[in-house]
Design a protein that fits this description.
- Two copies of one chain form a homodimer.
- Chain A contains six helices and three strands.
- The first copy, chain A, is mostly helical.
- Chain A has a domain of 77 residues: Multidrug-efflux Transporter Regulator, Chain: A, Domain 2, CATH 1.10.1660.10.
- The structure holds a DNA duplex.
DNA sequence: AAAATCCCTATAGTGGCTATAGGGTCAAGC
DNA sequence: GCTTGACCCTATAGCCACTATAGGGATTTT
């Protein structure tokens, strides 16, 4: 079973360029090539791609995924690190949810300051945005993805 | 009252380079310059920066902020657009929270598949990551910031 | 006068892709 | 054999909101 990059993309629900990007980033090994220099993939790589895509759908960064793949590639190791990584990731997600809920409170409070169709200079929202002194800290969330 | 970029940064809780970046992006007008070519800011710009930073702390993108600043600069306009932008932003935040809560469910379910210190090849989590066929769609969240 | 602190411009890097330019390969149909 | 079209290749630039770096000049303090 040898498939080309287009079929791998189709099977794993991503773009062709994304696969090449993962290869460049070292998440996928360099594949075999056809006589015409096309990338050729086997069952192994399909599994690996599914693994990566599933991790991405769980919002893991490529760095986190790289760590998991390294463990995956040395199967006799203790899986405690897998658990730790996942726990850490869950905590990140929870922190992000907390931050966003705080944010929503601020936004809805702000929104209530203007209900009508006044001229902008009288709009309570813009006034609120200038004068409010609260500086909430929302956690950074750099590794998000859609699948 | 004429302050230099360092003090403006201090007063608005951001880096000097960030202010220059906002200027380059057209959110701040080009300021006056001292004889030694230093940027000089007045009360007006401090307010404008506070506005921008507060919007950022509410996770608005620079594009959204640009829109608000344009309204801000033409104060006789109807403020309905301000309300609409904020409503839209609130919806974005709510959607992101929803997506993250779904994510957390998946992550905790996955986490329960392994409790111990087994070799990686027997780890339920990695198995779950390979075999699970669910492909949840998490919304993209490109405009996040910390203040 | 020297050192420390501020400021300047310009450029490259971050993550996880997406988009574009400019080509090569291969199977099917005429 | 020749064209069409679908697929593939590499290399490069762009997205966002910064951050970091290099290499210098201005001002203030010692």
């Amino acid at each position: 079973m040898e498939i080309r990059i287009g079929e791998l993309a189709q099977r794993t629900g991503c773009e062709v360029v994304t696969i090449r990007y993962y290869e460049k980033e070292g998440l996928l090994p360099e594949p075999a090539r056809s006589s015409g220099n096309y990338r050729l993939y086997g069952e192994e790589q399909v599994k690996r791609m599914q693994f990566i895509r599933h991790c991405r759908s769980l919002d893991m960064s490529l760095g986190e995924i790289r760590t998991l793949l390294n463990l995956w590639d040395s199967p006799t190791q203790d899986c405690g690190k897998v658990n730790a990584l996942l726990d850490d990731h869950i905590r990140q997600v929870e922190a992000r949810v907390e931050a966003l809920l705080q944010l929503r409170l601020h936004l809805t409070a702000l929104r209530e300051k203007c209900a009508g169709a006044r001229p902008v200079e009288a709009c309570g929202i813009l006034q609120g945005l200038v004068n409010c002194s609260c500086h909430t800290v929302s956690t950074r969330d750099e590794a998000s993805a859609g699948v």
